[in-house]
């Protein structure tokens, strides 16, 4: 694999209180939301990742 690796954008998950409103959201769902946001902000398609 000789393609260069770059960081094209970043996003983070929301901050929540212990056992607060985000307690029912699974970690993979939060991570997926952050990844989708970072890809969208960078103007990339999901296929380019």
Low-confidence stretches: none
Mean pLDDT: 86
How many β-strand runs? 0
Shape: elongated
User: Main sheet?
Assistant: none
* Distinct helical segment count: 1
Assembly state of the chains shown? single chain
Q: Report how far the terminal alpha carbons are from each other.
A: 14 Å
> Considering DSSP H and I runs of 4 or more, what fraction of the residues is helical?
25-40%
Percent of residues in β-strands: under 5%
Structural class: mainly alpha
Whole-angstrom Rg: 14 Å
* Series of H and E elements: H
What's this entry about, in short?
The protein has one helix and no strands. With 49 residues, it is mainly α.
Structure write-up:
The chain has one helix spanning 27-41. The chain is mostly helical and 49 residues long. The longest helix has 15 residues, at 27-41. The chain is elongated and about 45 Å long.
Which key phrases capture this entry?
49 residues, mainly alpha, 0% strand
Describe the secondary-structure layout.
Elements lengths: L26 H15 L8
């Amino acid at each position: 694999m000789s393609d260069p690796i770059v960081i094209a954008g970043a996003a983070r998950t929301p901050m929540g209180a212990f056992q607060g409103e985000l307690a029912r959201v699974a970690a993979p769902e939060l991570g997926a939301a952050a990844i989708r946001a970072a890809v969208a902000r960078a103007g990339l398609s999901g296929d380019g990742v």
